[in-house]
Phosphate transport system permease protein
Amino acid sequence: MTTQTAGPEKAVTRPGDKIFAGAATGSGIFILAILAGVAAFLLWQAWPALVADPAALPGGNGLWAYVAPLLFGTVISATLALAIATPLAIGIALFISHYAPRRLAQTLGYLVDLLAAVPSLVYGLWGLAVIAPASVAISQWLNTYLGFLPFFAGPPSATGRTMLVIGIVLAVMILPIMTAVNREVFLQTPRLHEEAALALGATRWEMIQMSVIPFGKSGVISGAMLGLGRALGETMAIAIILSVSNVITFNLIGSANPATIAGNIALQFPESSGLAVNALVASGLVLFALTLAVNMVARWIVSRRSEFSGAN
């Protein structure tokens, strides 16, 4: 008498699973199609400026001479905002996740997240009416004592509409997303790692240095990259505050400041026509490529972090 062994049972496929899988796949393809469509549209509209006579473009010196100061202003303003916001975001996230009582931490978390709902127009008006006048005395002090550095060479602006003010305003604008990412990463630190550090006699700050920050390092970097991508595309706040010139300068407190790509498009597009419009779209294509690259790097860092587990 032989005994037959039952083979492995086939997984039951439900109609809902097929519908969900199809919807998820279709959504991913749809997003890629939209992204490709935006890139194709920008390239199509920018092509006349890419092949046009340099003398016919704004400024008369070619497309790169037109875009380069805008790209420089975009990068330096976003980098300055990132340098200001990163330590603040880490400190706020650590306070909410490891120092503040639970109720206070929840309230602070809601308030920080609420900053993301404030329109950029409001930030621009706040920067113009409050931060810019208050920065005049600070700019004069920086020029007096740190004027040997190219960042504070001066002469200081009398109105305060400078790249330094833009960096401060953008730092406040990107603070919510960076703090949210850092907070969630710090909260995911394995509890056993924290308890082991405390059991060995470490203080709370030493425990954070040995366990929390190493675990969340890639999350901090990815949050910074996401904040950088947000700062690169900011428009209205920069258009309201900044007094721009077609220059490339590292001076953060002077009255001559490079414009940003997004701010320049917002200011110039309504009155432009012909090749000027194509040149603006070409600068938008450069911004699109830069922002896409920043977000791709951020996603790559996030995917690397997903390979790490608390048991490693």
In short: Residues 22-306 form a domain with the MetI-like fold fold (CATH 1.10.3720.10). Confidence is low (pLDDT under 50) at residues 308-312. The first strand starts at residue 244 and ends at 245.
